């Protein structure tokens, strides 16, 4: 295993390379306000982060990543366009896999560029591919924006689409909602009885867990309204399932998705963006003919990405997390920009894992 001094030296080397690509070095405090992260991820993040508090600053978290604070800093006083690089420790609780470190060094590169999203995506991917060149890695790419466009264009209620959008990053919950909205599964007995309940519950003293009667009543009314909505059409559902299953090289994946777009025409603009990105990657020397594309890639680990996503993996070491990963997060800049926004894309590298693979290779 590489010594900490070796890891820090490699991190410094990577950061210098990103500086040479035009990035400005930035740093962020180890302790981050918990409120922002909780607003983004909900209470789920508590299971993955170290939380502390004091009387002066309130609840805080040890930095779980750099992207959120870098976006916040840029939206406050960043110039346009801008490129940033950073290196430092991030902290993640590892209750499921105790062999994974709960503190490790991360090096990143972020691009805030309004004029040409495809070129910025290609720039970031090509730059990261260059850093890991020579390592036994597989590159995976995807585009969360295509699935989001498919969901937003479904012929169903806005509430159903909003529920599906909330759970795109939770595949099991997303699948369960799809089956329910398509009428593929019977209504659970408990829900059926609740829907058949007559009258107004707000006058009762009933409480379910921490939910008071008024909250229960509002939930019942929402379920009744949803029960009256027609199911998602079978052809739309089948097309959406086919879309999520696409896993091919970029060229063949694009062909498959263009065929699927006959039933999901709302994804065509996102596919046009994919075509533009592929052309920009080819212009930067990326071997797009052999580049893998997975329509569902990133759905379990990339919650703030809303477009292009990528990762570099050691297939011979499935126990290792991605050696590098990243993507586009335009929506995050809107959420943190207090009304402002700017397209943004970036990624991070794990210098410790790079050294580990180099040592194993001899």
Automatic annotation (TrEMBL):
- Record-level Gene Ontology MF annotations: glycosyltransferase activity; histidine-tRNA ligase activity
Top-level taxon: Bacteria
What are the GO BP annotations of this UniProt entry?
Answer: histidyl-tRNA aminoacylation
Pfam assignment, any one: tRNA-synt_His
GO terms under cellular component? cytoplasm
Cross-referenced SUPFAM superfamilies: Class II aaRS and biotin synthetases
Indicate the segments forming the Aminoacyl-transfer RNA synthetases class-II family profile domain, all copies. 14-351
Give residues annotated as binding L-histidine. 65-67, 92, 106, 110, 299, 304-305
What are the record keywords, sorted?
Answer: Glycosyltransferase, Transferase
Q: How does it assemble?
A: Homodimer.
Please give the name of this protein.
Answer: Histidine--tRNA ligase
Q: Which organism is it from?
A: Leisingera methylohalidivorans DSM 14336
């Amino acid at each position: 295993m590489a010594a900490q001094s070796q890891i820090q030296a490699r991190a410094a080397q990577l950061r210098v390379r990103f500086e040479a690509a035009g990035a400005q070095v930035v740093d962020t405090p180890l302790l981050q306000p918990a409120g922002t992260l909780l607003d983004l991820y909900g209470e789920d993040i508590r299971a993955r982060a170290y939380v502390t508090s004091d009387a002066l600053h309130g609840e805080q978290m040890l930095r779980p990543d750099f992207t959120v604070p870098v976006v916040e800093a840029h939206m406050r006083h960043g110039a346009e366009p801008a490129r940033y690089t950073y290196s430092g420790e991030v902290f993640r609780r590892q209750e499921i896999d105790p062999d994974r470190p709960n503190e490790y060094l991360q090096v990143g590169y972020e691009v805030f560029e309004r004029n040409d999203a495809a070129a910025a995506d290609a720039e970031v991917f090509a730059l990261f591919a260059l850093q890991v060149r020579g390592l036994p890695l597989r590159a995976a790419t995807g585009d969360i924006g295509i699935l989001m466009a498919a969901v937003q264009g479904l012929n169903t209620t806005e509430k159903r689409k909003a529920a599906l959008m909330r759970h795109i990053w939770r595949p099991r919950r997303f699948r369960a909602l799809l089956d329910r909205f398509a009428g593929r599964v019977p209504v659970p007995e408990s829900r059926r009885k609740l829907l058949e309940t007559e009258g107004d519950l707000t006058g009762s003293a009933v409480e379910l867990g921490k939910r008071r009667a008024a909250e229960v009543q509002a939930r019942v009314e929402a379920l009744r309204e949803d029960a009256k909505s027609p199911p998602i059409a079978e052809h739309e559902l089948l097309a959406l399932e086919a879309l999520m299953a696409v896993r091919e090289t970029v060229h063949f994946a694009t062909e498959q998705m263009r065929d699927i777009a006959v039933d999901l025409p709302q994804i065509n603009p996102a596919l046009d963006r994919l075509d533009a990105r592929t052309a920009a990657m080819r212009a930067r020397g990326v071997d797009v003919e052999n580049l893998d594309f997975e329509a569902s890639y990133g759905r379990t680990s990339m919650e703030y990405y809303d477009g292009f996503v990528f990762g570099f993996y050691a297939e011979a070491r499935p126990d290792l997390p991605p050696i590098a990963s990243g993507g586009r997060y335009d929506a995050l800049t809107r959420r943190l920009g207090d009304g402002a926004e700017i397209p943004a894309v970036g990624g991070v590298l794990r210098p410790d894992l790079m050294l580990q693979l180099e040592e194993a290779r001899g």
